[in-house]
Design a protein that fits this description.
This protein has helices at 107-115, 126-171, and strands at residues 2-12, 19-23, 26-27, 33-36, 45-48, 59-70, 93-104. The relative contact order is 0.11. The protein has two domains: 2-73 and 91-122, no CATH class; 124-171. The protein has two helices and seven strands; from the N terminus they run E-E-E-E-E-E-E-H-H. With 186 residues, it is of the alpha+beta class. The strands form two sheets. The protein has a five-stranded antiparallel sheet with strand order 3-2-1-6-7, with no helix packed on it. The protein has a two-stranded antiparallel sheet with strand order 4-5. Strand 2 and strand 3 (26-27) form a beta hairpin. 30% of the residues lie in helices and 27% in strands. Keywords: Membrane, Transmembrane, Transmembrane helix. The chain crosses the membrane at residues 129-149.
Length: 186
Amino acid sequence: MMRQLDSMYFSKDGVELIQYAIEGGVADFFGFSEFECTPGSPVCWVETILRAEWFAVPGLVTMSGIGTLQFGSGSRRSLTDENQRELQGQNNEERGIFKFEFPVTTFQETLIHNNGSASSSNTVSQPQAILLVLLCFILITNCIFVFWLRQSRRIENTIQGERLLEHRNKSRPSKEGEEVLIVLND
C-alpha cells in the first residue's frame, strides 16, 4: 500500500533542466502537476504537463522519485511486559525509489512517421483543399456582410438625423439673427 509520494521529477540527457512534479509531498509550484495519494490506497496517480524543452530533440526522459510505502493497516500492535516495555517493534513504513524512462520525439518526426515520408508531409488531400476553399469563401462572405451591415446602419443613422433636424427646424421658427446649425454625421 502507498502512504505518500515524497518526490517525483523528470530529467533528460542534453537538457539542463530538472522538472519537479512533486517535491516534499506537494504538487509543483507552477501548476504543471496534479496528484492524489490517499494513505493506505494501493495506487497513487500523478498527472503532469512536460515543458517544451523536453521535446526539442528526441531522446529518453527519465522520471524518478521516492514514495513511502505502508505495510499493514497502520495500527500498531506489539507484545509488552508489565513495565510497558516494547518487546517487538514494528516499522510500518519504508521508502521506495522508483525510476522510469520513456521516449519523446519532436513534432516533425511525428509528422514524418504518420505520413510515411518527409516529402508527403507538406501535401494536402483533395477533401482538405475543398474544405479550405469553402471556409475561405464563407469567411470572405461574412466579412462583406458585416461591412455592408455597418455601412447601411451608418447611412440609416444619417438619414434619421437629417429628418430629425428638419422636423425640429420646421416646428420651431427661427428668430431674426439666430443661426441654425445642422450637423450631419458621417
